[in-house]
Every structure is written in C-alpha cells, then in structure tokens.
Amino acid sequence: MIHEVDEGLRRLLAENALEASGIEVVFDAPTRDWAARRTAPTVCVFLYDIREDATRRGSGAGEVHDEDGHLVARRSPPRWFQLTYLVTAWASRPQDEHRLLSQVLATLVATDTLPARLLTGTLADLGLTVGLDTAGALADAPAAADVWSALGGELKASLGVRVQAPLAGVTKAAAPPVTEGLVVRTAAARTGEEASPGRRLRYTEVGDPGGDGFTGPRERPAAPGRRRRRGDRQP
Fold this sequence. Notes:
By secondary structure, this protein is α+β, with helices and mostly antiparallel strands.
C-alpha cells in the first residue's frame, strides 16, 4: 500500500508538468550526502512517519463472490494508516527552490483526496477514498526540526503532507459449494438380508426442469389425501 501511495503522489505532481520541465520527483531521504550529490532541480517527497488510525478500525468480515455469484472468500475489513511526508524543493538558488515549492503547494492544496484515476494496485481495487492533507497541523507527528536533525542536515523550507490510506484486509478462501446430495441407506431388517444399496437424495434447483441441481430448494411432495376413518360412508 505504501508504494501505491508514493505512486499516486508522483502522478499527482507529474500532472502539473513537473516531470515535463525536467524536474525529478524522488522519495529519497534528504540527507547531507544526498544533497551533495544532487545536480538537477528536484522535488523530494520523504516518508518519515506511519501510524494507524485506530478510530477507523472495523470488525467482521466481508464476502467475496466470483462472476457467477458464488462465495469464494471472506475478507477482513481494511485498516487505515496515516502516512506523513516531508516535501522539499532542491535547486541551485533559494529563489528557484521557493518557486518550485510554491508550484508543489498549489498542486497539493487543490484537492483533499488522491484522484481515483491516479490510484493503482490495492488502492484502486478497494475503491475507497484516499485522503490528502497538505500543510495542516500535524500535532502527533515529529516536528520538522527533529526530522532534519535526525537526517543530519540543515533546516530547510518544507511542506508537511499527510495521506490517509487503507491497507487491504486478509482474505481467506471459503469452502467450495456442495455439489452432491446425501446418500441414504437402510439397515437389514433381519439377519441374512442384504442392506439397501442406498439412493442419493436429489434436490431440484428452481427453474431447472432436469432436476439435477443441488443448491436450489427441495420440492415438497404433494400433500396426501385425508385418510378415511372407521365409520365414514363411501360417497
């Protein structure tokens, strides 16, 4: 799921012609050594914090059906995580960095979600909304100064971006559907007699004139007529 969020952010920034302008979008840690090797204008989207949103944790299990409508698996509900990124711009002059960072900011604040057309993999399959919060209050995340200190670099202008994304639940295959009826045999009444070879119960599927289906409801036999009691007269 994490790499799919990365790809969604990269596609979102690419739509604003960053890559067409020769500006590279990377997800590296902006350490001092990395900054020394940089030679071209770059937007760095560094993931530094991952936390589960326990308030959105669900329970139970959903059903997965095949094209014919048969139950094939059960899936636990998705779990939601908050991914926090540090977004920085790198260029030869501070003015160019600020211009580039402003362009990134305008792109990210224009939407509150990652557009569905940009999602891939499990994020696209789940069909759930992936939230996007840019430059908001990230009270429970490490401060930017602490992140730069841990990276061993100098403090730099940056954007805090938080993505709320679902992690697909665990899928367990269901037992195959029953396709054969029960076999009923009767025991021998007296010693020396052979037991009945048995017969297979057949269930008729609704709308099946052949009566070979098993999954449909069983037809009830017609109700027998009322038994004549002693003393009743013949009609």
